[in-house]
Structure formats: C-alpha cells, structure tokens
Design brief:
The protein has about 250 residues and is α/β, with parallel strands linked by helices. Helix content is about 40%, strand content about 15%.
C-alpha cells in the first residue's frame, strides 16, 4: 500500500498534505478527542469563559503548562520527516495542519508552507495588540504571581496562540488553505478523524475540484467512501516507506 501512495505522489504535480493528531501521537503527544485523550483529563475552556474570568485564564495557563511537560519531550517522527522531504523536493506545496504542536516547523518545513488552522501552542500572543510572548516569559510571570499574565506592552489579555472552543477561526489561514486546496491535484489527509469542521471541509473541496483524495489514518473516517485510496496503517512507517527515508 505504501507503494501505491509513493506512485500517486510521483504522478502528481502539486500535493497538499493535511495533518491531524494521528501523525503526532507517534511522537508521544496524546490526542484530544480519544477516550484517553487530553480532554478527558482537562475539559476544554470556552473562549468566552477565558475572556470573562481572570480565574479561568489562570486555570487555562495552569493546564497549558502541565500539558507542555509532555509536549516539550516530543520530536518530529518519520511521518513529519517524510512530509518535509516532499516539501523540499517541490512535490508538496503546502501542509495544512490541525495540530498545534509545531512539529512540522521543527521537521524543516518552511514557515510559508505551513498553514496552522488551529494555531500554535509553542508561543502566546496578546489578544489586544497582537504582540508575541514567549512561553518561558509567560511561565515565569505565572509561577511568580499565580495569575494570568498581561501584555507587557498594552496590558491586554495574553493567550496561547491556539484557537479555543468558541473562538473564531483565523481568516487568513482559512483563506490560504482554501487557495492551496483548489490548487492541488492530490490531497493527502493524514492522521485526522475528518470530523471537525470547517477544517474537515478541505478534503471535500479538493475532491469536488477534481483532485485525487488519499486518506491515511489508523481508524476509519466518514470520508473513506469518497477517497480514491484509503490506507488504515501506521502513519510514520507508511510515509517513511513512501518517501524512501532511511
């Protein structure tokens, strides 16, 4: 089956890769939605709750730093590296990701090739002025005061640069993903349940626009029936073989 994937990529001129949590679980990062996922331990905090309550903001940061103990140990796996190789070869035009772990960046994919639909958990931003805040700085302030930190420039609310429940999707990234999807002749969905919309609409858009759709996921998805090729296999080893990585 890896050979079928390899051949499909070789025959395509412009591939878009779409990744979900499944590619990063092989790096040791738990997913969110499974029965043992992070949301079973830490129920998500709605964006409106975060904005309205200083106590909820402090709780959000407490959970964030607790989860970061796991995320900090993670490194790109062979799946990430295979995608980075295809990007470097000019086969993959963009990587659209639902993940917030930043592992595509670490794997060597250039920033302008990555479209993060749900943001990035490796830094924070001020919701008022947009100033970037590094997590080490935020953690030091939080551990000193026990309170959610304010922006050092404008005094606004600082939040992890991820998209929370109830928070609007990033317009620029959604537009970039839409354009990339319409420009591809092969859309490769990897490690996603394809249940979370609007992100999960991109495979459908690609298929309707005439692109081939390939789904690589350990479990069945609701879109398997419309895909041209479905691979229910381990992600890292499958991509490693297809990309001919050592």
């Amino acid at each position: 089956m890896s050979q079928e994937l390899k051949r499909a990529i070789e025959e395509s001129y412009r591939v878009v890769v779409f990744t979900g949590a499944g590619i990063s679980t092989e790096s040791g990062i738990p997913d969110f939605r499974s029965p043992t996922g992070l949301w079973k331990k830490y129920a998500p905090i709605d964006f409106q709750e975060f904005m309205a309550s200083a106590d909820m903001r402090a709780e959000a940061w407490r959970r964030k730093f607790e989860m970061d103990k796991t995320m900090a140990k993670a490194a790109p796996n062979k799946g990430h590296m295979a995608i980075a190789k295809w990007v470097g070869e000019g086969k993959v035009s963009h990587v659209i990701t639902q993940n917030v772990d930043g592992l595509h960046h670490v794997s060597g994919v250039p920033e302008d090739k990555i479209i993060e639909l749900h943001g990035n958990a490796t830094y924070a931003t001020c919701l008022g002025c947009g100033l970037r805040h590094e997590l080490d700085e935020v953690r030091a302030l939080f551990e000193t005061s026990g309170a959610a930190p304010d922006c050092r420039d404008c005094g606004g609310i600082v939040k992890s640069a991820t998209i929370s429940f109830g928070q609007a999707m990033p317009e620029k990234e959604m537009e970039r993903a839409h354009e990339a999807t319409l420009g591809c002749d092969l859309f490769l969905a990897i490690g996603s349940s394809l249940q979370v919309f609007p992100a999960a609409g991109f495979p459908i858009l690609a298929k309707r626009n005439g692109a081939r759709l390939i789904i690589l996921n350990r479990e069945e998805t609701d879109m398997d029936e419309i895909a041209d090729l479905v691979l229910h296999e381990e992600i890292g080893p499958t991509l490693r073989t297809a990309a001919m990585l050592n």
